[in-house]
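Let's do one together. I've listed all components of the complex below, 435 residues spread over two lines.
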Amino acid sequence: MSQVFSEILDVSLRSIYVSGFATLLSASWSIPAAYLLSLRRRVVVLEALIESLVGMPTVLLGLLLFLLLSSSGPLGFLKLLYTPQAIIIGQAILITPLIISTCYRALRGIATSYLELALSLGAGRSQAMMLVLRESAPGVAASTIMGFSRAVGELGIAMMVGGNIRGFTRVMTTAIALDVARGEFESAIILGIILLVLMIMTAISVKILMGVRAQ
Amino acid sequence: MVIELRGIWHKYPGMAAWALENISAELTSGRVILVSGHNGSGKTTLLKIAALLYRPLRGDVIVDGQSFWEMSEAEKIAARRKITYVHEKPILIRGSVLENIAYPLRIRGLDSRNVAERAEIIMKELELMELADKNAKELSTGQSQLVAIARALAVEPELILLDEPFAHLDSERSRLVAAALQERRRNGAGIVIASHGGGELPDELEPDEVIVLEEGRIRR
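Okay, and this is what the predicted structure of the assembly comes out as:
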């Protein structure tokens, strides 16, 4: 029994670590991209393109990454297939449109005026960007948390490029899928509850942060 | 400091009409210039171009003999740091009144002690000491306007551009601001004020020059 719980703990922590790292990685390019987008006019087509990619099926992205990372693929020499790093990269790509889209919405209304304010007070471009992000921090943080929520709950990428290797690339969603296939419903339910609690905590954090932004 | 606007034409995206048409003017230190005109006459656009925030579609903005939009990024920052601009609708950042006033000082790399000293001087001058720790988002429009003006004056700029600075201020605070601006003029700073309608300024602040705008053109 204790071994089961130890494995559940291991899988849960790995999920948080892998998806947390993927979220940070994605935020590092998605937030600046959303900032640049928010300063531009006439971005309707780009906005629509990014929004359409938010709902990209994870198995499709998993398949593309598998073909890229497999030994005969163009990036096969990196030997990343069936590693946690492959899942991190895949999840980071998956949540990029979501973070850009939600972060862009948080920045859209205020970026231009705060950029102008910062420049009018003598700020450089990077100082101005920091001010804009600081002023929209709750919205930016909420978009990042949403990204984490999407990453931790996805299955396709973790399964296809992670391989569900016990003690190495097994995360909550792949563990649940395996447990159900094996008929081990008890551990599947426990993992499902942990995943659900994590998602609910994430949603509550987003609500709180959105509330802060509205003030 | 001298800012020359040479043959400025400007239009906003999606708009058919020109916001500014062939505007030439010289804004220099030590003078008060009043930019007057009705709503939509182009006053704000003119001020934002002079504040080096908007790039005009045609024409050139010359800062101390050098074309601003041809400058390197470092030169642009240096030029912008000689100027401050106060928006018509005051924009304040998250945090207290003190943090707002400290912001332009901090980004110039001043140490905390220097920042606190200079912020205190300007807050005393504009009678804002009682509001120092108050959340900026909880201020009235008039108080916000006063804080925005204090923030712009804190760095002792060579040129101060203010868009309708007295619109939300009562007569007592208007006189306070006018006196502070007059003091800066005596110390050599240039002051450009946009004001709609009759363009009346408090008595303390007599303009040296009045530019009247009408549908984006200077009325001669």
